[in-house]
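I trust your eye. Have a critical look at both lines of this record:
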Amino acid sequence: MSINFKSVYKILFVIGLLLGFASVFLDWYYLQGITDSGETVVYWIYNALFDWSTIFSTGALFNESYQPKNATMPIAIVIVFLVVLFLSAYSVLFHDVERGDKLLKVRKFDFVTLSLVTLIGFFIIIFPLFFLLPNGLYYPFLVYYDYDLEITFYFSIGPGYFFQFISFGFTFPYALFNHSVICTFEREQSSIENTINRYIGSVHEELDLDKLIAKEEYELESVNSSQIEVPESKVEKVYEEFLTSRGRK
């Protein structure tokens, strides 16, 4: 039984889109501080759409002193991600170069799909390197005990980030496969166009209109000349000359 890899990649891609969409509504990172008595005194959660939040109300000074600073991704990037995600979903469901769609249109959606994979890669790599680690937020997880405060700090990534990681693994194969198929079609189309252009160039002759008109007029004159009747007197004269030359007259 043969396996249709394209169908498998497409199904995985759609699953990856769903996971990517769900990830922006889930928690990406946790920072917790728990005392030896089991009381939670620090609790911060990061969400890509809703920024950092806490279970404590304003006025919990100890908790606020551990609020992460400058550790928030620009919301504009998240919005762009959602727009690109929906465009990619539309592309994979309704456009396919192998179904005869216009190559230019499919090429544009191919750029969208590659942009989606790039954005997911941005979240996976750039988020911890530029937003977590520089702010003392350890990645992917760490348990740290502060002997002075007698507090255990828990640093860990959340399900939203996990979903992004899985989404990348599911969307990358189809994006790469689809890009290679489009490039193959472009090469074939370019080859066919070059062949046709070379053939046209080899048989092309510049048309000389004056020559064609002159030729047409000559043919018409020839036809008209062949249709003119020879006078009867002239026919008799020629006949008599013929008899004389034969000695019959």
